[in-house]
Amino acid sequence: MTDPAPKPAGYIKLLLDFGPLLLFFITYGRSDLLTATGVLVVASVICFAVLWRLERRVPVMPLLNVVLVVIFGGLTLLLADETFIKMKPTLIYGLFALLLAGGRLLGRQPLQIAFGPMLSLTEKGWTLLTWRWAAFFVCLAGINEIAWRILTTDQWVMLKTFGFIPIVLVFALAQTPLMTRYKSTDESESAGI
């Protein structure tokens, strides 16, 4: 029997998750968007590799993020066009919405698969939570799509760095009443058995 992969300490995970974004913001403040994008790409790849090494598994969401950062960051750098890096949040939020909604339409519970060990909800609770997050990600994709088209680059960088994360945290906290209401007391029900 193999030992489960160790979980990195909370602050290490936080640094690996948000470090590239912080470096992007700092670099942008001292240089330009193209340079900041190059830093974001390199930092994202390094942080993903470290996370992979620490967890001894491929973390799906960080993998999706790093692939999109490399593709859109690479296009931004290769073509010297800021549009691509500005479109990345739209695509990633759209993909999250598609994965959640698509999973539900196929009869699966994507959030339960991802968070089941940490959260025990009834089937109805998982369904409602999944649809809410799917709708929320559609809204975020729409906000980013409008924002990068109408805001200056400085304003968009501020929104990307300091706007989206608090919005996601507030939305997540707003789901507490739903999760409390549909908390499962029966292990077999929460496991979907």
UniProtKB/TrEMBL annotation:
Keyword hit for Cell membrane: yes
This protein's GO CC annotations: plasma membrane
Highest taxon, organism lineage: Bacteria
Pfam families according to UniProt: IspA
InterPro entries documented for this protein: YciB
Regions that span the bilayer: 12-28, 34-54, 61-79, 91-107, 128-151, 157-174
Main location: membrane
Membrane topology listed for this record: Multi-pass membrane protein
Keyword entries, A-Z: Cell inner membrane, Cell membrane, Membrane, Transmembrane, Transmembrane helix
Localization terms from the record: Cell inner membrane
Cross-referenced PANTHER family: INNER MEMBRANE-SPANNING PROTEIN YCIB, INTRACELLULAR SEPTATION PROTEIN A-RELATED
Family: Belongs to the YciB family.
Described purpose of this protein according to its UniProt entry: Plays a role in cell envelope biogenesis, maintenance of cell envelope integrity and membrane homeostasis.
Name of the protein: Inner membrane-spanning protein YciB
Source species: Elstera cyanobacteriorum
